[in-house]
Write a structure and sequence with these properties.
The protein has strands at about 1-5, 10, 15-25, 30-40, 45-50, 55-60, 65-70, 75-80, 90-100, 105, 110-115. It contains no helices and eleven strands. The radius of gyration is 13 Å and the shape is globular. It starts with a strand and ends with a strand. By secondary structure, the chain is mainly β.
Length: about 120
Amino acid sequence: VQLVESGGGLVQPGGSLRLSCATSGFTLDEYDVGWFRQAPGKEREFVAALTWSGGSSNYADSVKGRFTISRDNAKNAVILQMNSLKPEDTAVYYCAVRSGTGTYDYWGQGTQVTVSS
């Protein structure tokens, strides 16, 4: 099982980034998917999640209206489109998957996002 995030980098406030999570070793369409982030000195926090069917999503209040989570089961990929980025969005972003409710089963190693002028 492998999850590999990409697309992070340095962006100015107000800018956009598109994070991708390439998955392998399991059948993605059987899993819910999620994005989390961890800023320096802070605990990891939930960002967004999408059910296995793609029919239901939810977002942290801090990113609602700015971030969009999506999935492409045919390509075994999970996407996080981030718009109107703020300095407080700076963090390492992780994708994760789970086969049911509760804890996430598999995690990627993360990709750094830095929002700064």
